[in-house]
Amino acid sequence: MSIVVQNLRRTFGTFQALRGINLEIADHQLVALLGPSGSGKTTLLRIIGGLDFPDAGQGSVVINGEDVTERPAAERKAGFVFQHYALFNHLSVFENVAFGLEVRPQKTRPSKDAIRDRVLELLRLVQLGGLEQRLPSELSGGQRQRVALARALAIDPKVLLLDEPFGALDAKVRKDLRRWLRAFHREIGVTTIFVTHDQQEALELADVVVVMNEGQIEQIGSPQQLYDHPATPFVYEFLGDVNKVRKPGRPDVFYVRPHEVKILFAGDASAELHATIEHLFAAGPSARLTLRIQESRETLDADITRLQLEEMGLSEGDEVGVHLTLTRS
Ligand code: ADP
Ligand code: MG
Asked: Looking at the domain 3-238, which fold is it?
């Protein structure tokens, strides 16, 4: 289902949490709402799902061509998953996933057999087949979040709304689940909005990333568009490492990513700047150099390959030449 949000405003007391949000999401997309804490991500997600509402007359939410701005959550058929798994601890995995179907009024409730088939199919889909009799306390954090996802899917949602669903899990599990969610979304194809404050997570996972800051959208684009063509200094700094540098004789500030800094021998005629290696960190796939630029006394981070590091025989204290391969102001 497509989602269109127009001119949305939400005020809490005198505080403007959302200040005119416009957003269009196409069917089947996996969209990340990315921004620092307090930027309005959760508020926007809740309003899309019908758990909260915009200020009176201030904006609209249209799902699949239908204006649902004033409709409650129950009429929007959105599936929710939150950071802190709200599973029922006294119910089994099976009962948790079946819950949304069991509580339907008799008229629309599927038969016991149909519910059973649906729940088992969903548990297979989230790779928890065979664990249906377990209690939530007998599962890992990652498994619990997959139960929460299966439960959200049981109602056959039109849209899936995930609010920092992996936020409480440790880094390794997060990474696995991220990859898993990507493949999972490809399989089920439900339009999904995913809130995160983790830029890596957003860039790796989403078709489209919406960068939010102080209740406004800074930029919308594919991960690569955002990374390569940030529209604002905020987006530049929020999406990955970046250096701010001044070039001699020019007043403007340039943004350059560490992998865009070319390291040359000190005597190389194509060097624009000269620097001393203050710190060298090579315990990873590439080497990170922290440089002190001689011309401006500024520091600059550069990433080079381990191969280049070895071939040039660089170590801390060495002088090098610097060429900025790509500079944007
Ligand atoms: P995010 O999810 O990006 O961290 P939120 O949407 O939760 O941000 O909140 C945005 C801002 O609105 C924050 O400053 C928060 O304190 C404020 N806020 C959110 N919900 C309420 C509320 N119910 N009452 C008052 N202020 C709120
Ligand atoms: Mg939030």
From this structure: Rossmann fold (3.40.50)
